[in-house]
């Protein structure tokens, strides 16, 4: 079955459409600068005041900004990060995707299928939402795998092995394949490690870059996946086969950076840059479609919906065949954080 579509002019005037589609490269650069400022600032705070509190706080903030970089990469995949494809791709790759071992072009090919077939049987991201609702015990197990690094380790191991290619290939072919899949990512991360080493904080790379990437980012990536498409009211209605989740300051800081919570609006107008999505939400909320929109008050409310399955129906290990993608939130073949956005 094919999901229904909505024309932008059904709820936007011509002038409003022009306004929300307008891209301002400087705004995207400010968001990237904001992400990297919080990352480097968190590292500096731990270096100056090393204690358990500053360390845990830094891991949470850096992990959320790593998700933020993935969100900005996602804007780049839609061509919405900057004016001009070359600049858009350069910013998306080198300042957003490569730092977190992702790649915009491969992600774009994969992600556009999700937009074309949202919540349909051939949606490549359906596996991320189909298992829900689950029991609270099931979610606790998933949370433990995420926060303990098991999910992140499984994801990166599969990504690395995939990049190595087939063992039967000649060494030169395997090396070329690895460079194509992960070469620039390793280059960026080696430069980042060198910079931290030069600043006298080499330890920050494993403890305050890789650790958040393997732990807190995995936790909030799962929460984001759940909020975007799990337990939605109607898989065929564009106003109800995804959702917007209201986010306060704390949620924006630790869980939902850079307007990722406006997912319904993004699906309606995927070419709109993320910083214009709140404007789209305001317009929709005043329209005749407001009552149909799937909007939840916060992420806690979404998790309650997603974990509403009765405890006596808990089946540990029932989804083992889906573990590679469902629990990691990753498309290994495409070397990307899974679409979900």
TrEMBL record:
Domain of life the protein comes from: Bacteria
Molecular function GO labels: oxidoreductase activity, acting on paired donors, with oxidation of a pair of donors resulting in the reduction of molecular oxygen to two molecules of water
Record-annotated Fatty acid desaturase domain positions: 54-287
GO CC entries: membrane
Keywords assigned: Membrane, Transmembrane, Transmembrane helix
Pfam families: FA_desaturase
GO biological-process terms attached to the record: lipid biosynthetic process
Residue stretches spanning the membrane: 29-49, 55-73, 186-205
Record CDD domains: Rhizobitoxine-FADS-like
Protein name: Fatty acid desaturase
Organism: Bradyrhizobium lablabi
